[in-house]
Write a structure and sequence with these properties.
six-stranded mixed beta sheet; single chain; Rossmann fold; globular; alpha/beta; about 230 residues
Length: about 230
């Protein structure tokens, strides 16, 4: 649908009808087929992949690396990750020969949130500085953003389509309609490594200040109505 030559249509020119056509085309496909098709319809230079290297990040990373191991993976290093998360990241980098690039907040702004303990007073602002803003700086260089969101994970995620234009980039959720049971079956079949904290009851893992054990995303921003860091809103 989209040419990869110099005539490639800029993202801002994509119409609602084109996005609707993409959703219709990709809906019947499996997660693996969707990822394969993405690299036919779009040039890899226009594709951005992010990973939090949390709970079951190996699922999406395994799928993508098997199909296109040249894909760059961006890791947002908030400075507040669990040590287990950083070790898990190293494990997956070696396991799947990943091309990982870490991005982070401006040093002075991150230090402010640390001294201020902003996550206690205004978690939205803390996420904005340490997660959203670092990614905003590189998003402008890409047309498509691959994300591993699944609709069963939260009410917000249940409202999404496989392709959506958000913030001047086309979001692509190849795993959107994968069930928890299907995900777990794939993980077991391929013996994918879980994040070490999963065994301790953590099923969604973010920054250490804002994550406690809990089912699905209930352990994130505990006792706070916040359910998303802001990256996917």
């Amino acid at each position: 649908m989209f040419e990869t030559s110099s005539n490639y249509t800029p993202l801002l020119d994509i119409s609602a009808e084109e996005i609707k056509a993409l959703n219709k085309k990709y809906k019947p496909l499996s997660a693996q087929e969707r990822i394969k098709q993405l690299y036919i319809d779009f040039d890899i230079a226009d594709v951005m992949l992010t990973s939090s290297f949390a709970a079951t990040s190996a699922f999406l990373l395994k799928l993508v690396s098997d199909i296109n191991n040249k894909q760059e993976v961006f890791f947002i290093d908030t400075g507040y990750h669990f040590e287990d998360t950083l070790k898990y990241k190293t494990t997956l980098e070696k396991e799947y020969n990943l091309n990982v690039t870490s991005i982070s907040a401006i040093k002075e702004e991150h230090e402010f949130t640390s001294k201020d303990e902003t996550w206690k007073k205004n978690p939205d602002f803390c996420c904005s500085i340490n997660k959203v803003q670092p990614l905003e700086k590189i998003k402008k260089d890409y047309k498509v953003w691959i994300s591993g969101l699944m609709e069963w994970q939260s009410d917000h995620r249940a409202t999404l389509d496989i392709f959506e234009e958000r913030g001047n980039i086309l979001k692509f959720y190849p795993l959107l309609d994968v069930t928890k049971e299907e995900r777990d079956a794939f993980i077991e079949e391929h013996n994918l490594p879980f994040h070490p904290l999963v065994a301790k009851g953590y099923h969604s893992i973010g920054c250490k200040h804002c994550t406690v054990p809990g089912e699905d995303r209930s352990g994130r921003w505990n006792n706070n109505p916040k359910t998303e860091c802001g990256l996917h809103l």
